[in-house]
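Thanks for the sequence, V.! I ran Arrestin domain-containing protein 15-like right away. Repeating your input here for the record:
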Amino acid sequence: MNIDIILTDPDGTYKPDDIIRGTVTLDLTSTQNIQNILCKFVGNEETSWATSESLYDERTNTMRLGIVHYKGEHNIISCEEQLAKDLILPIGPHDFPFAITVPKRIPSSYSSNNGWIKFGVVVSIQNDLVFYEKEIPIHVKAPINFNDIRGEIQLEPIVYQNEEIIWHCCYAGDPVTMDLILEREAYTVNEPITFKLEVNNKSDREISEIDVTLTLVVETTAAAPRRSRKYYEKLLTGAKARGLSHGQQELYSFRFQVPDVIDIPNFIGSTLFRQKCVLKAECKIQDSDTKLDVQTELKLGHIPVERSRRITHPHGPVRRVHSSGAINRPLGFNFFNTSDNASAPPADYQPTAPRTTDDIDNLPPSYEEAIRATFDARKTKKD
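Predicted structure:
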């Protein structure tokens, strides 16, 4: 039996909800009793790499240098369509057309030195004695649709803050503070990314330069023999700004734009791959080992949020603080208290009007009075 899969568009790139059309041709050299013919759309991902590590040698009770092979495997998707069943086919070619829909919420095809994500159309044929299977690759380009991840993206103004104390040999000096002011944290490719950076140099040192970068970071995960990760970084764009003398404060404006020729991979539905775009601003302080930086994670996509699904925040920008080595730490913004002069209630409560005589006469008994009344009642009952 010879199996051939012919696509209507063999060189095409497919996206979610597209229909893959084609024909399965069986060329039989003898009469076959076909029990089942299935057409499947499948997606798999795999990661692998080798690293040199220190390993314990039980024979010599010593540590030695060895090679550890890491690997991860995961089946992303598998959906099938039955083309035929219970057939007796004579000698010769037989055609079975198919049309299978590319599922939603799947990642794009991807390949790197440490792993890949692949999709394909698989035809499975079962006869009385043998199970036949053939697969052809399918290239999937899944755009990042912000409407599918609306709850994961920040579309309102936000501020990130950080400060560093400039230390001298015997005492702590004044700080350098930096605020990263963003209109939002989600942008489509080829859309201008505008933001501001406010730097206040209260120290006695000069800031020689301010460096701002937008970097794509791809995280690759392996599960065996234990969980391990590798990172690949690619600079998307960047800019430099002049420094500040001590005692100066300045507000810088930036405008970045990621061209659409740069591929931003979509890893939705993947468990072994993840990507993020990191916007980082760093102050280089002259004659000091201290580094001041503030960074946050931006979402870059291809399909913007529909206007009907946009949510306007009624309380203005949400302020968050960033310390070196961490991202997105809340500063304690209160979403519910909108008053500018909010205060706590008085510690000692005072009634707004004096009690009347009726109120005093109808007061409930005190704890001691209640205990005494219960005791007297029991004593009277016993007597």
